[in-house]
Amino acid sequence: MPLKSRSKSKELKVYTSLNSRMDLEPSDRKKYTNLKKGYDGEVMFDSLTASLDKKFLIINDLNLKSENTTFQIDSLIITKGTVIPWEVKNYKGNYYYENDNFYLCTNRKPITNPLHQLNRCETLLRPLLHSKGFHLPIEGYVSFINPEFFLYQAPQKKNIIFQPQLKFFLNELSMLPSNINGMHKNLADFLLNAHISEPDNMRFPLYEYEQLRKGFICACCQSFSVTPFEKKIVCNDCGYEESLQSAVIRSIEELVLLFPNIKITANLVYDWCNFDELKRKIRRILPKNYKIIGHGPHSYYVNK
Ligand SMILES: [Zn+2]
Protein backbone atom coordinates (compact mmCIF):
# COMPACT_ATOMS: atom_id res chain seq x y z
CA MET A 1 0.00 0.00 0.00
CA PRO A 2 1.27 3.48 -0.76
CA LEU A 3 1.52 5.76 2.29
CA LYS A 4 -1.13 7.92 0.69
CA SER A 5 -3.56 6.63 -1.91
CA ARG A 6 -5.17 8.74 -4.56
CA SER A 7 -8.76 9.84 -4.35
CA LYS A 8 -10.76 12.15 -6.60
CA SER A 9 -10.13 15.80 -5.77
CA LYS A 10 -12.99 17.95 -4.57
CA GLU A 11 -12.65 19.89 -7.81
CA LEU A 12 -13.11 16.77 -9.94
CA LYS A 13 -16.05 15.60 -7.82
CA VAL A 14 -17.83 18.95 -8.19
CA TYR A 15 -17.19 19.11 -11.92
CA THR A 16 -18.38 15.51 -12.37
CA SER A 17 -21.63 16.28 -10.60
CA LEU A 18 -22.19 19.56 -12.43
CA ASN A 19 -21.40 18.00 -15.78
CA SER A 20 -24.37 15.67 -15.24
CA ARG A 21 -26.69 18.22 -13.69
CA MET A 22 -26.23 21.31 -15.88
CA ASP A 23 -24.94 22.38 -19.26
CA LEU A 24 -21.38 23.47 -18.57
CA GLU A 25 -19.84 26.32 -20.53
CA PRO A 26 -17.39 25.00 -23.14
CA SER A 27 -14.39 26.16 -21.09
CA ASP A 28 -15.74 24.41 -17.97
CA ARG A 29 -16.52 21.29 -19.94
CA LYS A 30 -12.95 21.31 -21.22
CA LYS A 31 -11.64 21.74 -17.71
CA TYR A 32 -13.78 18.81 -16.54
CA THR A 33 -12.48 16.62 -19.38
CA ASN A 34 -8.89 17.54 -18.50
CA LEU A 35 -9.38 16.89 -14.79
CA LYS A 36 -10.94 13.51 -15.51
CA LYS A 37 -8.29 12.55 -18.06
CA GLY A 38 -5.55 13.58 -15.65
CA TYR A 39 -7.06 11.57 -12.82
CA ASP A 40 -7.52 8.47 -15.01
CA GLY A 41 -3.87 8.72 -16.11
CA GLU A 42 -2.66 9.05 -12.54
CA VAL A 43 -4.68 5.99 -11.48
CA MET A 44 -3.10 4.09 -14.38
CA PHE A 45 0.34 5.25 -13.20
CA ASP A 46 -0.39 4.19 -9.59
CA SER A 47 -1.22 0.67 -10.75
CA LEU A 48 2.24 0.43 -12.36
CA THR A 49 4.17 1.75 -9.37
CA ALA A 50 2.10 -0.13 -6.78
CA SER A 51 4.54 -3.04 -6.41
CA LEU A 52 7.44 -0.68 -5.60
CA ASP A 53 5.89 0.06 -2.21
CA LYS A 54 7.51 -3.05 -0.79
CA LYS A 55 10.89 -1.38 -1.13
CA PHE A 56 10.28 2.35 -1.24
CA LEU A 57 7.90 4.91 0.21
CA ILE A 58 5.19 6.06 -2.19
CA ILE A 59 2.95 9.08 -1.69
CA ASN A 60 0.32 9.72 -4.35
CA ASP A 61 -1.21 13.11 -5.02
CA LEU A 62 0.37 15.74 -2.80
CA ASN A 63 -0.63 19.40 -2.59
CA LEU A 64 2.09 21.40 -0.90
CA LYS A 65 2.92 25.01 -0.21
CA SER A 66 6.40 26.43 -0.47
CA GLU A 67 7.48 30.05 -0.65
CA ASN A 68 3.81 31.05 -0.56
CA THR A 69 3.05 29.05 -3.69
CA THR A 70 0.81 26.01 -3.86
CA PHE A 71 2.02 23.17 -6.05
CA GLN A 72 1.00 19.64 -6.80
CA ILE A 73 2.98 16.43 -7.09
CA ASP A 74 1.16 13.65 -8.96
CA SER A 75 3.20 10.94 -7.32
CA LEU A 76 6.33 10.83 -5.18
CA ILE A 77 8.68 7.94 -4.56
CA ILE A 78 11.30 8.06 -1.82
CA THR A 79 14.22 5.69 -2.37
CA LYS A 80 17.36 5.33 -0.29
CA GLY A 81 19.26 8.00 -2.20
CA THR A 82 16.65 10.09 -4.03
CA VAL A 83 13.30 11.80 -3.82
CA ILE A 84 11.45 11.25 -7.10
CA PRO A 85 8.51 13.52 -7.88
CA TRP A 86 6.47 12.47 -10.93
CA GLU A 87 4.52 14.64 -13.31
CA VAL A 88 2.08 12.25 -14.98
CA LYS A 89 0.57 13.25 -18.32
CA ASN A 90 -2.33 11.44 -19.96
CA TYR A 91 -2.08 13.21 -23.33
CA LYS A 92 -3.42 11.36 -26.33
CA GLY A 93 -2.73 11.97 -30.03
CA ASN A 94 0.14 13.51 -31.98
CA TYR A 95 2.38 16.24 -30.64
CA TYR A 96 5.76 17.60 -31.65
CA TYR A 97 8.70 19.12 -29.80
CA GLU A 98 10.41 22.25 -31.05
CA ASN A 99 12.51 24.99 -29.42
CA ASP A 100 12.00 23.60 -25.94
CA ASN A 101 8.22 23.49 -26.30
CA PHE A 102 5.48 20.93 -26.90
CA TYR A 103 2.90 21.54 -29.64
CA LEU A 104 -0.29 19.80 -30.64
CA CYS A 105 0.01 18.64 -34.27
CA THR A 106 -3.59 19.37 -35.26
CA ASN A 107 -3.48 23.12 -34.56
CA ARG A 108 0.25 23.71 -33.99
CA LYS A 109 -0.55 25.44 -30.69
CA PRO A 110 1.85 25.09 -27.75
CA ILE A 111 0.69 23.25 -24.65
CA THR A 112 1.91 23.85 -21.10
CA ASN A 113 5.40 22.40 -21.08
CA PRO A 114 5.39 19.45 -18.64
CA LEU A 115 9.17 19.79 -18.19
CA HIS A 116 8.66 23.34 -16.95
CA GLN A 117 5.95 22.04 -14.60
CA LEU A 118 8.35 19.42 -13.27
CA ASN A 119 11.09 22.00 -12.89
CA ARG A 120 8.74 24.30 -10.97
CA CYS A 121 7.77 21.43 -8.70
CA GLU A 122 11.42 20.55 -7.99
CA THR A 123 12.32 24.20 -7.42
CA LEU A 124 9.56 24.55 -4.82
CA LEU A 125 10.05 21.15 -3.19
CA ARG A 126 13.79 21.63 -2.63
CA PRO A 127 13.66 24.58 -0.19
CA LEU A 128 10.69 23.01 1.59
CA LEU A 129 12.71 19.86 2.31
CA HIS A 130 15.92 21.76 3.07
CA SER A 131 14.10 23.92 5.63
CA LYS A 132 13.33 20.73 7.57
CA GLY A 133 16.85 19.36 7.27
CA PHE A 134 16.20 16.83 4.48
CA HIS A 135 18.96 16.99 1.90
CA LEU A 136 18.30 13.98 -0.32
CA PRO A 137 18.74 14.85 -4.00
CA ILE A 138 15.50 15.46 -5.90
CA GLU A 139 15.31 13.86 -9.32
CA GLY A 140 11.90 14.14 -10.96
CA TYR A 141 10.42 12.67 -14.11
CA VAL A 142 7.64 13.42 -16.55
CA SER A 143 5.78 10.28 -17.52
CA PHE A 144 3.55 10.17 -20.60
CA ILE A 145 1.26 7.37 -19.57
CA ASN A 146 -1.09 7.06 -22.56
CA PRO A 147 -0.08 4.48 -25.21
CA GLU A 148 -1.87 6.61 -27.81
CA PHE A 149 0.45 9.58 -27.22
CA PHE A 150 3.15 10.26 -29.79
CA LEU A 151 5.79 12.99 -29.77
CA TYR A 152 7.60 13.88 -33.01
CA GLN A 153 11.16 15.19 -32.67
CA ALA A 154 11.20 13.98 -29.08
CA PRO A 155 14.25 15.21 -27.18
CA GLN A 156 16.52 12.61 -25.65
CA LYS A 157 16.09 13.83 -22.10
CA LYS A 158 16.56 11.44 -19.27
CA ASN A 159 13.74 12.98 -17.24
CA ILE A 160 11.07 12.12 -19.83
CA ILE A 161 9.70 8.58 -19.64
CA PHE A 162 7.42 7.57 -22.49
CA GLN A 163 4.81 4.90 -21.99
CA PRO A 164 6.77 2.09 -23.72
CA GLN A 165 9.80 2.89 -21.49
CA LEU A 166 7.95 3.00 -18.22
CA LYS A 167 7.88 -0.68 -17.39
CA PHE A 168 11.61 -1.01 -18.02
CA PHE A 169 12.33 2.11 -15.99
CA LEU A 170 10.31 0.93 -13.01
CA ASN A 171 11.91 -2.50 -13.25
CA GLU A 172 15.35 -0.94 -13.05
CA LEU A 173 14.21 1.15 -10.11
CA SER A 174 12.91 -1.94 -8.33
CA MET A 175 16.40 -3.48 -8.57
CA LEU A 176 17.82 -0.77 -6.31
CA PRO A 177 18.36 -1.82 -2.72
CA SER A 178 15.66 -0.71 -0.34
CA ASN A 179 17.53 0.51 2.80
CA ILE A 180 14.74 2.82 3.88
CA ASN A 181 15.47 4.11 7.36
CA GLY A 182 14.03 6.46 9.97
CA MET A 183 15.13 9.58 8.10
CA HIS A 184 13.17 8.49 5.00
CA LYS A 185 10.13 7.78 7.12
CA ASN A 186 10.42 11.17 8.82
CA LEU A 187 10.63 12.80 5.41
CA ALA A 188 7.47 10.97 4.29
CA ASP A 189 5.67 11.93 7.53
CA PHE A 190 6.63 15.54 7.03
CA LEU A 191 5.19 15.55 3.50
CA LEU A 192 2.01 13.77 4.58
CA ASN A 193 1.48 16.34 7.32
CA ALA A 194 2.21 19.22 4.97
CA HIS A 195 -0.35 17.97 2.44
CA ILE A 196 -3.19 20.45 1.88
CA SER A 197 -6.44 18.57 1.25
CA GLU A 198 -8.33 21.56 -0.13
CA PRO A 199 -5.84 23.79 -1.95
CA ASP A 200 -6.88 27.41 -2.39
CA ASN A 201 -6.31 27.37 -6.16
CA MET A 202 -9.46 25.34 -6.87
CA ARG A 203 -11.86 27.06 -9.26
CA PHE A 204 -15.51 26.15 -9.73
CA PRO A 205 -18.16 27.19 -12.25
CA LEU A 206 -21.02 29.36 -10.97
CA TYR A 207 -24.17 27.37 -10.19
CA GLU A 208 -27.34 27.59 -8.15
CA TYR A 209 -29.59 24.91 -6.70
CA GLU A 210 -32.57 25.85 -8.86
CA GLN A 211 -30.74 25.44 -12.16
CA LEU A 212 -29.46 21.91 -11.46
CA ARG A 213 -31.22 18.80 -12.82
CA LYS A 214 -32.62 16.76 -9.93
CA GLY A 215 -32.63 13.00 -9.58
CA PHE A 216 -30.35 10.06 -8.95
CA ILE A 217 -27.21 9.77 -11.06
CA CYS A 218 -25.76 6.34 -11.76
CA ALA A 219 -22.71 5.85 -9.50
CA CYS A 220 -20.88 4.08 -12.29
CA CYS A 221 -21.53 6.02 -15.52
CA GLN A 222 -23.19 9.23 -14.19
CA SER A 223 -26.31 8.63 -16.33
CA PHE A 224 -29.61 10.14 -15.23
CA SER A 225 -31.49 7.24 -16.73
CA VAL A 226 -32.04 5.08 -13.64
CA THR A 227 -35.11 3.10 -12.61
CA PRO A 228 -36.02 2.90 -8.93
CA PHE A 229 -37.33 -0.35 -7.48
CA GLU A 230 -38.44 -1.22 -3.95
CA LYS A 231 -34.92 -1.56 -2.57
CA LYS A 232 -32.56 -0.58 -5.36
CA ILE A 233 -31.98 1.62 -8.36
CA VAL A 234 -30.83 0.20 -11.70
CA CYS A 235 -29.04 2.16 -14.42
CA ASN A 236 -30.74 1.83 -17.80
CA ASP A 237 -27.50 2.65 -19.60
CA CYS A 238 -24.84 0.49 -17.94
CA GLY A 239 -26.95 -1.86 -15.82
CA TYR A 240 -25.24 -0.89 -12.55
CA GLU A 241 -27.35 -1.71 -9.50
CA GLU A 242 -27.18 0.12 -6.19
CA SER A 243 -29.23 -0.24 -3.03
CA LEU A 244 -31.72 2.57 -2.57
CA GLN A 245 -30.17 3.45 0.79
CA SER A 246 -26.71 3.80 -0.71
CA ALA A 247 -28.08 5.90 -3.61
CA VAL A 248 -29.89 8.25 -1.22
CA ILE A 249 -26.82 8.69 1.00
CA ARG A 250 -24.59 9.21 -2.02
CA SER A 251 -26.99 11.81 -3.44
CA ILE A 252 -27.05 13.66 -0.11
CA GLU A 253 -23.23 13.65 -0.03
CA GLU A 254 -23.24 15.10 -3.52
CA LEU A 255 -25.71 17.78 -2.45
CA VAL A 256 -23.51 18.73 0.54
CA LEU A 257 -20.44 18.76 -1.70
CA LEU A 258 -22.13 21.27 -4.02
CA PHE A 259 -23.75 23.29 -1.22
CA PRO A 260 -21.68 22.87 1.96
CA ASN A 261 -23.94 25.13 4.04
CA ILE A 262 -27.29 23.75 2.94
CA LYS A 263 -29.73 22.38 5.57
CA ILE A 264 -30.66 18.80 4.76
CA THR A 265 -34.42 18.69 5.31
CA ALA A 266 -36.59 15.75 4.26
CA ASN A 267 -38.36 17.90 1.66
CA LEU A 268 -35.06 18.99 0.18
CA VAL A 269 -33.93 15.36 -0.16
CA TYR A 270 -37.24 14.41 -1.86
CA ASP A 271 -36.74 17.27 -4.29
CA TRP A 272 -33.06 16.50 -4.91
CA CYS A 273 -33.71 12.79 -5.52
CA ASN A 274 -36.80 13.70 -7.56
CA PHE A 275 -38.76 10.53 -6.96
CA ASP A 276 -42.03 11.34 -5.25
CA GLU A 277 -43.03 7.71 -5.02
CA LEU A 278 -39.95 7.09 -2.88
CA LYS A 279 -40.85 9.60 -0.18
CA ARG A 280 -41.95 6.91 2.25
CA LYS A 281 -38.69 5.01 1.73
CA ILE A 282 -36.49 8.08 2.02
CA ARG A 283 -38.30 9.06 5.21
CA ARG A 284 -37.11 5.78 6.69
CA ILE A 285 -33.56 5.99 5.37
CA LEU A 286 -32.86 9.48 6.74
CA PRO A 287 -33.21 8.89 10.51
CA LYS A 288 -31.37 5.59 10.21
CA ASN A 289 -28.28 7.29 8.79
CA TYR A 290 -28.42 10.86 10.05
CA LYS A 291 -29.13 12.64 13.28
CA ILE A 292 -32.30 14.74 13.30
CA ILE A 293 -32.16 18.26 14.73
CA GLY A 294 -35.39 19.95 15.78
CA HIS A 295 -38.99 18.87 15.32
CA GLY A 296 -41.71 19.13 12.72
CA PRO A 297 -41.40 20.99 9.42
CA HIS A 298 -38.25 22.86 10.50
CA SER A 299 -36.28 19.78 11.43
CA TYR A 300 -33.16 18.90 9.48
CA TYR A 301 -30.49 16.22 9.37
CA VAL A 302 -26.76 16.25 10.16
CA ASN A 303 -24.12 13.52 10.10
CA LYS A 304 -24.28 11.16 13.08
ZN1 LIG B 1 -24.78 3.64 -15.37
Describe this structure in words.
With 304 residues, this protein is α+β, with helices and mostly antiparallel strands. 38% of the residues lie in helices and 22% in strands. Strands 1-2-3-7-9 form a five-stranded mixed β-sheet, sandwiched between helices. A four-stranded mixed β-sheet has the order 6-5-4-8, with no helix packed on it. A three-stranded antiparallel β-sheet has the order 10-11-12. The protein is globular. The two termini are 30 Å apart. Zinc ion (ZN) binds next to loops.
Mind sketching the topology for me?
Elements: H1 10-21, H2 26-49, E1 57-66, E2 69-78, E3 83-89, E4 93-98, E5 101-104, E6 110-111, H3 114-131, E7 141-144, E8 149-152, E9 160-162, H4 163-175, H5 182-194, E10 226-228, E11 232-235, E12 241-243, H6 244-258, H7 266-273, H8 279-289, E13 290-293, E14 300-303
Parallel strand pairs: 3-7, 4-8, 7-9
Antiparallel strand pairs: 1-2, 2-3, 4-5, 5-6, 10-11, 11-12, 13-14
Helix pairs in contact: 1-2
CATH architecture of the largest domain: 3-Layer(aba) Sandwich
Q: Which stretches are poorly predicted, pLDDT < 50 over at least 5 residues?
A: none
Q: Total strand count, please? A: 14
**Morphology:** globular
Percent of residues in helices comes to: 25-40%
Class by SSE composition: alpha+beta
Q: Which fold name fills CATH's third level, the topology of the largest domain?
A: Trna Endonuclease, Chain: A, domain 1
End-to-end separation: 30 Å
